[in-house]
Amino acid sequence: MKKVAAAIIKDRDQLLIAKRHSKDPLAGKWEFPGGKLEPGETPEECLVREIREELRIEVEIGSFYDDTVYGFKDQAIHLLFYWAKVIKGEIKPVVHDDVKWITIKELTRFNFAPADIPIVKRMERENI
């Protein structure tokens, strides 16, 4: 099972979401940015690296929020969600078609990737 880390990047009452690239199998779906853990890498180290590569910003990783396991075809991924905040830089999407800062109330307006949906629902329930 692949391990993937995702950052819930928060600034005051807004969250950063990213739209998957048009050539991606999940093109057009929204997600919390992140990526696959490399061998020997912690989820926190993975997120710092991935966010730097994908969004050209530096983030500080906070506490673990939740995880999900999502299966598709003959694969499964274990997705680990961590809180994060921007500490340096201006967001420049490299592998996404778009990024947006949204409020919790706006989450339902976006078509999220299947693995992110349980986390989105939990956040809506808890109104974080």
What does this protein structure show overall?
The chain has 128 residues and is an alpha+beta fold. Helix content is 18%, strand content 46%. The protein has one domain: Nucleoside Triphosphate Pyrophosphohydrolase (Alpha-Beta Complex), CATH 3.90.79. Strands 1, 2, 3, 4, 5, 6 and 7 form a seven-stranded mixed beta sheet that branches. The mean pLDDT is 94.
Which word captures the global form? globular
Please tell me the overall pLDDT.
Answer: 94
CATH architecture: Alpha-Beta Complex
Q: What do we call the CATH topology?
A: Nucleoside Triphosphate Pyrophosphohydrolase
The level of helicity is 10-25%
Report Rg. 14 Å
The helix/strand series, from N terminus to C terminus, equals: EEEEHEEEH
Beta percentage is over 45%
The main pleated sheet reads as:
7 strands, mixed
Number of helices: 2
Q: Low-confidence segments, ≥5 residues, pLDDT <50?
A: none
Quantity of strands, as a count: 7
In the residues, how many domains can be counted?
Answer: 1
